[in-house]
Write a structure and sequence with these properties.
Layout (H helix, E strand, L loop, with lengths): L2 E7 L7 E6 L8 E9 L2 H8 L10 E2 L3 E9 L16 E4 L8 H5 L29 E4 L5 E3 L6 H18 L10 E5 L3 H12 L4 E6 L2 H4 L9 E4 L5 H11 L5 E6 L4 H9 L1 E9 L12 H6 L3 E4 L5 H14 L13 E2 L4 H10 L6 E2 L14
Parallel strand pairs: 9-10, 9-12, 10-11, 12-13, 13-14, 15-16
Antiparallel strand pairs: 1-2, 1-4, 3-5, 3-7, 3-16, 5-6, 6-8
Helix pairs in contact: 1-10, 3-4, 3-9
The structure holds zinc ion (2 copies).
């Protein structure tokens, strides 16, 4: 176990490749993990395409979503819950926020830490094992870790280490969802689906999904959504009219934008009531969006953004999975496309095309397990 097969990006034009990296001796506070499952994020597609040249630093080990089993530790014996970290414990980990900068220490917003690059963003000098598309991964001393139940599917856990924990953090930044609330979710990718599931589980009176394509929305068939709009077969005006009709003309109490494109921002604002909360999680583009700021003020709408998450939000995410994974049939998100490390480029391609909702990479399998093999 001196070498790790690891996906490294050294050149945007050449794309990712698998290399054998030496597994170094652990520094104090580090944990060596064998990655059980890693999942592909839209962000990985952007990083590999060179769309974030200022934020990503080559060479880098790819992947920021994942879970794994403890192989060795140097001085870490318990997780944030006080549970023992022993050989074989399944864990998840937050990014290595420094804990010492203004954002971490004074503003108490470590997710905008000024001194850290997240896992999967590089740099990975001398093959540092700081990405999850790898047999082995090293959790840095700054990262807080949480043990997770072995009853949970590692692929689903991995998907929750980005999308669901992001939703859990975001939900703390607006007033709690009330039983009388009408909630609109824009976007039916993993973040949007998790946001809708969390809104339903929170007891919202009505949850309305705007997404697509139609096949993607079928996962919500049994969720009890109030309405589910396919953006490919409905217009902005039709969707707005129906949501206003269902909210006595006021608009939704809470809108959660998880869609991404610039156009989604104003669609969300258009269906938000006066004084409502607008949670912006999706926006990922280079356009400048024109907003009626006078209308925003007069309508006293609260626009709130949220980035990444702390370990407390991972804790909430894992608790949510334990209780609700079956209720919302969440395994559907991760069961369609499985890859080994040699096919990371294919995994990125099906993420980019939208063919897969959440491609899964099994770094230690030559032949990735199919549905049901892991149970
Ligand atoms: Zn992600
Ligand atoms: Zn910091």
């Amino acid at each position: 176990m001196n070498l790790s097969r690891t996906v490294v990006l050294t050149d945007y034009a050449a794309g990712p490749s698998v290399v054998d990296l030496r597994v170094p001796d652990l520094q104090p506070g580090e944990i060596l993990v064998e990655v059980s499952a890693a999942t592909v994020c839209g962000t990985d597609v952007h990083i590999a395409a060179g769309n974030f040249p200022q934020l990503a630093t080559l060479p880098l080990v790819m992947g920021h979503e994942g879970t794994g089993r403890v192989v060795a530790t140097n001085g870490r014996s318990v997780d944030v819950n006080g549970r023992d970290l022993t050989l074989g414990s399944s864990i998840v980990w937050a990014h290595p926020w420094c804990g010492h900068c203004f954002s971490c220490a004074i503003a108490e917003e470590p997710t905008i830490c000024e001194n850290t690059a997240g896992y999967g963003w590089g740099p990975s000098p001398e093959g540092r094992l700081n990405g999850t598309f790898s047999e082995f991964f090293i959790v840095s001393p700054e990262s807080k870790v949480l043990r997770v139940s072995d009853r949970l599917d590692p692929a689903l856990v991995s998907s929750a280490t980005c999308a669901l924990r992001t939703v859990m953090h975001a939900m703390t930044r607006i007033p709690r969802i009330r039983f009388s609330d009408q909630v609109v979710v824009l976007g039916s990718g993993p973040v949007g689906l998790y946001a809708a599931a969390v809104a339903v589980a929170s007891g919202a009176a009505g949850v309305h999904m705007i997404g697509g394509p139609k096949e993607r929305l079928t996962i919500t068939d049994e969720w009890g959504l109030a309405t589910c709009f396919d953006i490919f077969s409905s217009t902005h005006d039709e969707r707005r009219a129906e949501i206003l009709d269902r909210t006595v003309g006021r608009g939704a109490d809470v809108v959660i934008e998880c869609a991404g494109p610039a156009v989604a921002f104003n669609e969300g604002l258009d269906v938000l009531r006066r004084g409502g909360s607008y949670l912006v999680l999706g926006q990922a583009h280079r356009e400048t969006v024109s907003v009626n700021t006078t209308g925003l003020k007069v309508r006293q709408q609260n626009v709130v953004t949220s980035l990444s998450a702390e370990i407390v939000h991972f804790h909430e995410a894992m608790s949510f999975l334990e209780r609700y994974a079956d209720r919302f049939q969440l395994a559907q998100m991760v069961e369609s496309h499985h890859f080994n490390l040699d096919h990371v480029s294919d995994a990125l391609a099906v993420m980019r095309s939208g063919e897969a909702m959440k491609p899964v990479i099994y770094p230690t399998y030559n032949n990735p397990p199919r549905k049901g093999d892991l149970s």
